[in-house]
């Protein structure tokens, strides 16, 4: 089934200046939205509930994050953005959730690496628990290994977590193609980190490569996932190029391509 044109999921809560390291700053999502808002409709999500969080995380971790009300408010807004993206995907509506904080380093009972709740894991697990889908591929293209996502889904046959890790551009893109050539799934989710860009920490991928990745996922989803796919922001720290890189990914994901 052909997917609809892409939407962007965003909430001004993501601009909250909560306690974190200096590189994980509100300007990250500002720089992306400055570009994406000119091309795509923007949808505001509802925040995740405690029941949503507990699909993946322990009560202990939820309580730790809750101890900082400001941080908790933005963290559940980010998880809610991913949940909305996943729900829209199941209506053949692709989307990019421009959320903050990121999530792929958050494990069931621990958090680190600027992540507090695992946004993508919560979104995918919500669909699985509600039996909206029976299987999923999570494609993580961030510079850093998504250990939290991998920890949660380890041993789960219905979910494949493909952490693409290679410092050579051609090999990295080949690994993406290999991950998308494996099986048929009900849905594909992208943990969209942009910190592997040539002008970011990783120094590997070009802006055009993010278009290539988005288009490969789109084609894979149409062929093998009934047109169900979405992306959620993870890393990416050079605010001078974040917007154009996110736009490239979205244009690759879009149907039809947005000029």
UniProtKB/TrEMBL annotation:
Source domain of life: Bacteria
InterPro entries, per database record: HDACs (IPR000286), His_deacetylse_dom (IPR023801), His_deacetylse_dom_sf (IPR037138), Ureohydrolase_dom_sf (IPR023696)
SUPFAM superfamilies linked: Arginase/deacetylase
Pfam families according to UniProt: Hist_deacetyl
Gene3D superfamilies in the cross-refs: Histone deacetylase domain
Record-level Gene Ontology MF annotations: histone deacetylase activity
One GO-annotated biological process of the protein: epigenetic regulation of gene expression
Transmembrane segments annotated in the record for this chain: none
The Histone deacetylase domain, residue ranges: 24-164, 166-251
Family: Belongs to the histone deacetylase family.
Annotated protein name in UniProt: Deacetylase, histone deacetylase/acetoin utilization protein
């Amino acid at each position: 089934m052909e997917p609809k044109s892409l939407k962007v999921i965003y909430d001004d809560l993501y601009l909250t200046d909560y306690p974190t390291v200096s590189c994980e700053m509100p300007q990250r999502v500002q720089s992306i939205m400055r570009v994406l808002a000119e091309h795509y409709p923007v949808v505001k999500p509802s925040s995740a509930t405690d029941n949503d969080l507990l699909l993946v995380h322990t009560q202990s971790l939820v309580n730790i994050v809750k101890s900082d009300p400001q941080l908790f408010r933005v963290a559940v807004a980010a998880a809610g953005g991913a949940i909305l993206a996943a729900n829209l995907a199941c209506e053949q509506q692709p989307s990019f959730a421009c959320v903050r904080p990121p999530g792929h380093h958050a494990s069931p009972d621990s958090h680190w690496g600027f992540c507090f709740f695992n946004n993508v894991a919560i979104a995918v697990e919500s669909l699985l628990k509600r039996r909206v889908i029976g299987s999923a591929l999570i494609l993580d293209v961030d510079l850093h290994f998504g250990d939290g996502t991998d920890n949660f889904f380890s041993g789960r046959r219905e979910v494949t977590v493909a952490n693409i890790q290679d410092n050579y551009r051609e090999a990295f893109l080949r690994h993406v193609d290999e991950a998308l050539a494996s099986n048929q799934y009900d849905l594909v989710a992208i943990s969209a980190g942009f910190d592997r860009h040539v002008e970011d920490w990783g120094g590997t991928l070009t802006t055009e490569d993010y278009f290539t990745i988005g288009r490969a996922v789109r084609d894979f989803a149409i062929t093998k996932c009934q047109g169900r796919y979405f992306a959620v922001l993870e890393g990416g720290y050079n605010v001078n190029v974040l917007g154009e890189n996110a736009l490239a990914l979205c244009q690759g994901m879009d149907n039809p391509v947005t000029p």
